[in-house]
Amino acid sequence: MKNLSDLPPEGNQPVQPKPTAIRLRRYNVETKAHGTFALDQGENGRKLALVGRLAETLAALVQAGSNGLTERGADWAWHLPEYIAKLRNKGVSISTTMEPHHGGFHARYRLETPTIVMSYQPAQYGR
What we know:
By secondary structure, the protein is an alpha+beta fold.
């Protein structure tokens, strides 16, 4: 049997949701990261304009160079494998190497497509 407080009030008005005890952490982002990148300088060269975490991820991969990028090194990227997959879908070649560590494995991502950062503006966070 349902609790009486869960039943809609008379007049078929919608029930207002009860506030939950869990609140999500919110960041006041004034401006998302954005950038323009030049891929494959040869005959297949093209420009790629990215916004948000994809721009941050590609810029971090360029900066990491041959050392590559891991989730630990990119602590700002909560879903780094997702961002890598989206960049791959856009035609960016990224290799993955699984490396052992205490308790398991982690992935190291390396940018294989020659890339030049034409312009990049990191995210601006408010207070």
